[in-house]
Amino acid sequence: MFATHGFAAVSVRAIATEAGVDPSLVHHFFGTKRELFDAVTAMPLDDDEAVAGMLEAGLDGLGERVARHVVGQLRAGDTGRTLVALVRTASSDPRAAEQLRERYTRDLLEPVARGLEVDQPELRAALCCSQLLGLALTEHIIGLAPLREARTETLIAVYGATLQRYLTAPLPG
Prior knowledge:
The chain is mainly α and about 170 residues long. The chain has two domains: about 1-40, Homeodomain-like (Arc Repressor Mutant, subunit A, Orthogonal Bundle), CATH 1.10.10.60; about 45-170, Orthogonal Bundle (Tetracycline Repressor, domain 2), CATH 1.10.357.10. The protein has eleven helices and no strands. It has helices at about 1-5, 10-20, 25-30, 35-40, 45-55, 60-75, 75-90, 95-115, 120-140, 145-150, 150-170. Helix 5 runs parallel beside helix 8 and helix 6 packs across helix 11. The protein starts with a helix and ends in a 5-residue tail after the last helix. The relative contact order is 0.14.
């Protein structure tokens, strides 16, 4: 429900109704709506292992490996819904925005850029993040049909080329 409607538009009562339980059960097990949101959007993903694998394979195709990782997550059942809930909510909720920043910049993209030992790794990570979260927004929230209907491999190839440039090409100035 958070992925479909966003944090502000969802009530504990609506969640309980959808789950077929009494709202008091939701409060008992999760506390507040915020605590429930935090619990369902906590993603136990092993980014260290993912980053190591991306870097281990070398510079060629790195952008594509990053795109494969993130597009794969966005299009994967529960993980995708969790990420979409965070993206949808981040525009109006600073805590969700912080979760996204930590997840994509601090935990995934900055370690990739630092592993390359290139200049301005934080900027490079932010550029990559802007592309990937832009994809999440336009495909899953705004619902641009050509993106929703595009083959996963097509998105990986297109976004991978852009991410490769952001990660490895000289930056202007």
